[in-house]
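My current task is to audit a protein record that another person submitted. My question to you is simply how this chain folds and whether the tokens agree. This is what I was given:
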Amino acid sequence: MAILVKPVQRVNPNKPTEPKKWYVTQVTTAQVDETEVAMDIADETTLNASEAMMAIRQLRKILLRRLLGGESVKLGDWGSFSVTISSNGVATKDEVSAKQIKSVNLNFQPDEAFKTALQKANFAWVDKLAEGRGTTSATEPDDTEEPGTGGTDDEETDDPLA
């Protein structure tokens, strides 16, 4: 499997008068829901799909409860989840109140093993798939690959998250 990418031309918002530059951007092919994830978990474990769905829902419930209780949650070598807030500034300490809070956000900080696993990604150029080529990896370079991009085959056994 590969992450689909395509070239996109963009203006630098900090320098709008400069010429547009080309960037590689990721293309999301689909969004899976918790039912599909539960079915995948059932395929990989001794849980049935209903048990896997219940585990996912309970994880969500417990994660939310802990985060709303002001705690950070570290899940093995996945990483840590925490809450951050965005707020408007005021001139004096006496003016500070909860009314300045604009939003509550979820922050995820992946652990090194998770980040390392992500660096093993393979990429496929959307516009070159029709030509029968375009997948790039660190082990199989072709003329579509940029130096330092790509990764190894996702079926290798050295994946720390497998």
